[in-house]
Design brief:
With about 110 residues, the chain is mostly helical. Helix content is about 55%, strand content about 0%.
Length: about 110
């Protein structure tokens, strides 16, 4: 088979266990990323969350991730968050009063 390649261009075939740890770490990282996205981690925070979870000791990725997110819920994507500005303004009441005035005005003009 070596004669198929020109001299000096032999393919390097990795040893059976060479790179195995690197591959396992990459798989672990991808599993953490998948689990984090499923739990609702924001995309912009994903790298940091994965980094922090990878540093924790333990085998069960789901448990490690749940512990981290329970301690750091700010990394979760939340929709429908209520933010109070302190201003009290009831738009529905104002619109209702405006409609009432318009209707009364129309009734007056019809008579």
């Amino acid at each position: 088979m070596e004669e198929l390649f020109e001299e000096g261009t032999k393919m390097e075939v990795p040893e059976e266990n060479e790179g195995g740890d690197e591959l396992k770490e990459k798989i672990r990282q991808l599993e953490i990323e998948k689990a984090a996205l499923i739990r609702g981690v924001r995309a912009k925070d994903l790298d940091y969350v994965v980094f922090k979870v990878r540093q924790k000791e333990g085998e069960d990725i789901n448990t490690l991730l749940d512990e981290f997110l329970s301690e750091n819920p700010e990394f979760l994507n939340r929709t429908g968050r209520h933010v109070s500005t302190g201003a009290t303004h009831n738009q529905n009441q104002n619109k209702s009063e405006e409609v009432k005035r318009i209707v009364e005005s129309i009734i007056k003009n019809m008579a």
